[in-house]
């Protein structure tokens, strides 16, 4: 089992320092003189000294990777490929995913298990998981991995209940590494000047309050165990643009709130090594969008033509980005909005 970030045992202490200094120098740049550094930064405070690693981030237990590993190696050190076996690996991680009975939440839960997660807890409204969820559980079960897909019936609007679920998972697993807040609702086309208060509130309750409560539930456990973690809030391109010809003022407003929620939480939680980012998809075919696309067939062409790729996206096209955000491959990414929209916002 490995933790997200524990100090590593260092070999010859100067070799790594020199390797890091060498790797910091771009090709062709002036030589990075340690004496020049010493003039502005006392040697005792050098960020590459193991005891000062808080300046450059504590290295993971598997040690330096990439160029630093190559420069640290002696001719007899066996070379190691680490990108997919270590940085992108989710081995032994525990995740909490809301809205995961189906759609993007289920797709991401499955990706985490393929990445090696120990357990992914899927929260959603129905008392029992649906057919799609059952089928995915059975399928990943046959992959031979040890990871578990667990289902918990819960309403993300209930802060107390969601915190309790976080605590129960934390007590059982002894860690919490990843959270995806994917539960969300989209209401029908409604004129902004007539938008009813209750309908607006209903959207805010799930898409804003529910996202906060889910992030809190996991974040409180991440803080409790002190291993850092990655919280991924599912926003939307609709948080920063308006979907043309769609009167979705509540949805768009809620997704904007999620963007700022992530930046705000990222700033508060950075010192605890808890990263908070948003993932903003464009049009993806799920039950949510099928409610529009399947009832108004002309919409498929229309939405497809709103991006330079000329098509809408598939849920599986978010597997890579969510694995990246959840894993050590993105340890310097926080407070960011990652947009995956087929170029919709480029036009
Ligand atoms: N599909 C897209 O094109 C698209 C684009 C951008 C963003 N998103 C966002 O992605 C997320 C997932 O959407 P999806 O497309 O998979 O839709 P979906 O409707 O298939 O999934 C949403 C899930 O959230 C659950 N949910 C709703 N209210 C809940 C509550 N109070 N408590 C717990 N669970 C609740 C639903 O039961 C459902 O399983 C949403 O936040 C959505 O706004 C989707």
TrEMBL record:
The keyword Methyltransferase does not apply. It comes from the Eukaryota. Pfam families: adh_short_C2 (PF13561). GO terms for molecular function: oxidoreductase activity, acting on NAD(P)H, oxygen as acceptor; oxidoreductase activity, acting on the CH-OH group of donors, NAD or NADP as acceptor. The keyword NADP applies. Signal peptide: none annotated. InterPro entries: NAD(P)-bd_dom_sf, Sc_DH/Rdtase_CS, SDR_fam. PROSITE patterns: ADH_SHORT. Keywords: NADP, Oxidoreductase. Belongs to the short-chain dehydrogenases/reductases (SDR) family. This is Sorbose reductase sou1.
